Amino acid sequence: MKRNIPSALRAALRPVPRFRSRPAFAQEPWQIQWQTRRGMAELVSAADMQFGQPLHETHPHIIKPGDLTPGISALEYHHRRANLARKLPKNSIALLVAADTKYRSGAVFYEYHQDPNFFYLTGFNEPDAVAVIEKGTSEVEYTFHLFVRPKDQKAELWDGARSGVQAAQDVFNADEAGDINNIASVLPDIIQGAKQVYTDIGYGPRKNAFQRFMEGGEPKVDGLAKLLQNASVKQLRPLMNELRVNKSEAELDCMRFAGAISGAVFTEAMRRTPSYTTEKQLWADLAYGFKSQGLDTEAYVPVIAGGQNALSIHYVRNDDRLHEGDMVLVDAGGEYGGYITDITRTWPINGRFSKPQRDMYGMLLKVQQSCVSLCREDADMTLDSLHRIAEQNLRSGLQDLGFDLRNNGLDVLFPHHVGHYIGLDVHDAPGYPRTDKLKENQCITIEPGVYVPDDERWPKHFRGMGMRTEDSVRIGKEKVEVLTDTAAKTADEIEELKGK
């Protein structure tokens, strides 16, 4: 095992430095020793090279000095791998595979999105890659293997630049790097030398991932099974959840930026809403606002639900007209450096609340604010306990508005949980228990909602209303931090926007 000095620091110790996050003392353009076709080593400016994702030397307007991905340094990625290695038993490995390219039809592909656990540990944002964190007998040392697509001039002509095998070591700090096409001859020895293998390959949507690299050609269902049949295999996800649920300061800064920009875009959309005639126009403005103001993309397919469309919690068709007198429920957010924000606001399309709309909105907002105020470590809360508080307050508030909640009435009107963890995923750390105490620097949403079917069971003037109010929140020690507080929220704030 080789690892003790962080790889981001080892670069400064080499006579010819490998291309890594640029050290603060560098005075000359960062260079890399690269093998030419004639087999001779030459120094090449990193800015003159092409990689499969933005780097500071090629995209200084996106990546700051020292960062490997937006807001996250190469050193932090090393610490993440080291933290995982500490959780692994001795003589074990963690095996991860990159997300595949998803195809819409034929050769037409969707925008690429890396597997969050793979991205969290490597910062590598290309498909067809495998990472192995190998722990030996030491508690602190590990070996990082990264297998990637090789540079290929013909393929890159069509599909864009690849980082290649050399960059896997020199940019992404792998101790051992290799061609993904040769992994079938390398990986068996790594696995056979491990007493335990931690992986999510074979679980859920990753079930058939990675097979083609083991047997070539089309995926073979039994490729990985044969490889692991004599190994002790455990699921990696629980260990990754324990790491990802607690956010570093760098992660929080990414989420603060995403939250602040997304909230401001929401507020502008509220101000402009009387000019929209369709859900799709509103959606287009939000998407444009996120990207034009510095975010990478939309965090997820948004809900833009006018009128009774808001009764469907995950309504994403977003193809209806917006009508005078209705409200519109918008659940959307932007993404920065892989980190997402999650906001929901409900507001009147004409800019003015009717009395029933204001009564329902005011009640719901009080419930949301009461739960947000408890998002502190010293409040000794869990997601489930916050949900119970939301249910109690909604029950009281709805009864005051004339609702009969007998026979599971509240379950009909409020059918979802009050919140979830957020981070690299919209529902971050999937499977992490909602019964664990919330700790400082964990991030969650608070999103109570009320969805009143058009049914005689409910008061007539509230029928057909769907409302939800949601913010992204950082758990503080003694004080709450709302990451999305730039989004107007009170009824008065929203109505005041109409005249601006």
Strand content: 15-25%
The total number of structural domains is 2
The low-pLDDT segments are 1-42, 216-222
CATH architecture of the largest domain: Alpha-Beta Complex
**What's the story with the biggest beta sheet?**
6 strands, mixed
Distance between the termini: 63 Å
Structural class: alpha+beta
Q: How many separate helices?
A: 15
Overall, the morphology is globular
Across the major sheet, the strand order is 10-9-8-5-11-12
Q: Mind telling me the CATH class of the largest domain? A: Alpha Beta
CATH superfamily of the largest domain: Creatinase/methionine aminopeptidase superfamily
Radius of gyration: 25 Å
The tally of strands reads 23
Helix content: 25-40%
| CATH topology (fold) name of the largest domain | Creatine Amidinohydrolase
User: What's the pLDDT, averaged over the residues?
Assistant: 88
Provide a short characterization of the protein structure.
By secondary structure, this protein is α+β, with helices and mostly antiparallel strands. Helix content is 31%, strand content 18%.
Topology:
Blueprint (H helix, E strand, L loop, with lengths): L6 H4 L20 E5 L5 E5 L21 E3 L2 E2 H14 L4 E6 L5 E3 L2 E2 L6 H7 L7 E6 L7 E6 L4 H7 L4 H7 L5 E4 L3 H10 L3 E4 L11 H5 L7 H6 L3 E4 L1 H8 L4 H24 L6 H14 L4 E2 L4 E4 L20 E6 L1 E3 L2 E2 L2 E6 L6 H18 L10 H18 L8 H5 L29 E4 L2 E3 L14 E3 L2 E4 L6 E2 L8 H6 L4
Parallel strand pairs: 5-11, 9-10, 11-12
Antiparallel strand pairs: 1-2, 3-4, 5-8, 6-7, 8-9, 13-16, 14-15, 15-18, 16-17, 19-22, 20-21, 22-23
